[in-house]
């Protein structure tokens, strides 16, 4: 858990986190008083029961959101922030309840000593242990392994924390909870501790614990509960109902959509392994009877089963990506900024994207507004991060900027080198690999982006051998192609990097050695690729060739194409041919092998090749090539020209035009 997220949670999350605990507790205590007639509800166990009934456990919420794959969605981030606040409020109330109860037993002087010891424990944890752990973490080289002596000292500290907590006369859960909050999240310490603890805790202890709790359940006690158990069932149900409606009303008051508010209400009432653990502790300590333990355990299991189904039905984050506005290069105005997102996974992607944009030769007449998004795998922390580096000042922001410091410096230099032609903003998203598409799509939606550039999952060495391959990146690229609210390009880096100085010449004529080639077969993706080429040609500083491959005359007679798509293709080509500094090559072919034979010697003269993805399209020009395709996400032509057998000394940009989707037909 990241304690800093409490400060950054915002008014909405703080209100939801606090009120969804306090209001249900009040409702529970009032219900207890009406049913039992007891007047002092703070000085007995009913107060602690009410905290358990109304609490929102951060680990349970985190597990639920992870399973639903909405951890870094807008709703997921709000739920996590509210859960952190709720956990803090619950822990505080438990300690206040202990102190109030102890006044009558130990006296006020002893309680004041307990309070002083608890405050001293918090001070030691946050002002001594946390700075010490940060100091050790800073001494570890970036990407290096933390010292084993310090690591095992931290592990031993966690193991001893319940005993140490009892010495400070605080609740037993208080110590591990605050020690966990004080531990610096992320690499090197947080991620290493997770790697050490996760297999043992989540893989062995947790399943065993849940299994033994399940074995202790006896349905006979559910059938014949005593009066006190019946009273607690009523109190728990009233608490649950109040918590649900408070969790629903607050988001609605903040103008959240009804379905999202309902989904959040279900998220906030969910229960799980934490509550099972609390009831088990109460049962072991003879605080609750066996019938209450069984009934509350069954309620927890029912909620844990129902809530995921309800949330999945109510909330689909990809709904917001459904766009009826055309956000593509083709539909962007030539004299306005082309809004582009460039995604970075590894340092090598920085050079690839900068070289590609340099090859496109941005100019004042055709400016680019570039949002650079550095994607970092979530490790050693529970809450996803989204950092806008251009807004950084001091303190927390400066600490977070270490994630992308070199990337920020590189793209700031790129902006200076292309002053008034390129404007750059850099962001960092720290989230699980399978959910990174949410960060990319959200940024594209918020910034009205027209084009997203994604690095290909495979990188090559200069000799053509594979340098690295990441299937998680491939899966992410496929998710973006399916869900993106704008046009997408996948950049396959060639064996020879794009050389700006070789490809750009302000006095370039049509007879000069060209730098960029566009392969055009027809279809909306190819038209999008051609629209990009037209923007590149505006500055007249780059050699550009359009290679139009079309079926032979005999095949065209048989096909007799006269649909709207063909008309659009012809119109696009007509406009392109009128641009003086674009070289136009036309070739008629009978099948795919003929296309391959024609392109193989031709493309080696270029630094960058642009082609449409054309997914699912069948044409005579590609007939016979489908069975050899290795990566469907870059299409037949993209897979062909970027293959090792084809040469691959150039980089390839595969373009897919924005997919306009209808509700219920999400790709």
TrEMBL record:
Residues 516-658 form the Cation/H(+) antiporter C-terminal domain. Residues 1-309 form the Cation/H+ exchanger transmembrane domain. Pfam families: CHX17_2nd, CHX17_C, Na_H_Exchanger. One of its GO terms (biological process) is proton transmembrane transport. This is Cation/H+ exchanger. GO terms for cellular component: endomembrane system; membrane. Belongs to the monovalent cation:proton antiporter 2 (CPA2) transporter (TC 2.A.37) family. CHX (TC 2.A.37.4) subfamily. Residues 371-493 form the Cation/H(+) antiporter central domain. It is a multi-pass membrane protein. GO terms for molecular function: antiporter activity.
